[in-house]
Amino acid sequence: MSLPKSIFQPRRTPQQLCQYTLSRRQTQRPQARQFSRSSAVAASSVAGAAEAEVQAARKYCSNLLLKYDRPSYTLSTFIPRNAQTFYIALRALNVSLSMIPDTTSSHTIGLMRLQFWRDTVAKTLAGSPPKEPIAILLASAISGLDARTQGRARISKGWLNRMINAREQTLTNDPYTDIAALESYAESTYSTLLYLTLSALPMTSVTADHVASHIGKAAGIAAVLRGLPLVAFPAAVSQRPDQAGTGMMAGGAKQGAVMLPLDVMAQAGVKEEDVFRLGAEAPGLRDAVFTVATRASDHLITVQQMLSNLNAGQDVGHEFEHEGEEGHQYDVRDLFKEQRNETPLEEVNRAFGVFMPAIATRLWLDRLESVDFDIFRPELLRSDWKLPWKAYISFQRKKLL
């Protein structure tokens, strides 16, 4: 059965479909985000790095994405040119964070590595990055952003630290208590990646942030599902290209775990010991995967409806639940000159390249459905050859296919 582009057609009873109800409350007009007040990096010097050093750092980060996060490498071409350096550095940072469990021998060393990245972020934002490729490239990108915006745009230290802090959970394979906790993790990692990329355009729009939130949650939930076999059987699955950035969040942990929300496992009757013993044939496992995957699909359906509303000249249809949180306080006085006359639809279209992870996520969810939610099928770990042209068509049409 082929999968329609707007919603899953489950192979189970319709009652299993996890409904994601949109509220229809009126949204406020898009306003500009107040950027964090972290220190700007001086544009006159790329934090002390020579041009050759920056180019070497860019090559290092690009190779890291090419090897461990192929979708992000592929989708980098859709990011506006003036923000591509920041995008590559940020995604390389995400890969490095996701690989910490695989490259450390103990929980304590893992915590030390996370602290190293907190310190690195602080030094980089202060204009004195350590001699580390990701930090050098990040500092170069921030320097360019500072020059382009005359110091008005800032990259949020709070958001970068939120990404780092969220990764602590992957060091110990702590289970998600419920699907809301899983969504919170996705918001703190994958949605935050998109917020930061929008900041580098720069884009200050509640509508763009709102779209990014739903796409990031879908991508984050799919990443956890994709990493489930790697976490459950860490010694049995070898690392493949594009795993680190899209789901290999605790693949090298010594102790296996089933990283599904506990409430979903209980409802489906999944027992962790059954998964360890029977793998894909564990009772209830496919039902549980189906429920979680449907929540990711629901977020993409929500985005499609939001874009449809915008194209019809309406508001997006419901309020942004994270407005007012750190980084999401909006003030018209901080509006950038080039954005003052943009409609919400024009803002979303200008930032459309940032939203391309929705295409990669939809393609993977379609593949998961095609194997009847057997999360252990090896083809789910491979790159999708359809991603480049699907993303290109979507970008040209400004429509998430």
UniProtKB/TrEMBL annotation:
<dbReference type="GO" id="GO:0005743">
    <property type="term" value="C:mitochondrial inner membrane"/>
</dbReference>
<dbReference type="InterPro" id="IPR002060">
    <property type="entry name" value="Squ/phyt_synthse"/>
</dbReference>
<keyword id="KW-0999">Mitochondrion inner membrane</keyword>
<dbReference type="InterPro" id="IPR008949">
    <property type="entry name" value="Isoprenoid_synthase_dom_sf"/>
</dbReference>
<keyword id="KW-0809">Transit peptide</keyword>
<keyword id="KW-0472">Membrane</keyword>
<dbReference type="GO" id="GO:0032981">
    <property type="term" value="P:mitochondrial respiratory chain complex I assembly"/>
</dbReference>
<dbReference type="Pfam" id="PF00494">
    <property type="entry name" value="SQS_PSY"/>
</dbReference>
<protein>
    <recommendedName>
        <fullName>Squalene/phytoene synthase</fullName>
    </recommendedName>
</protein>
<comment type="similarity">
    <text>Belongs to the NDUFAF6 family.</text>
</comment>
<keyword id="KW-0496">Mitochondrion</keyword>
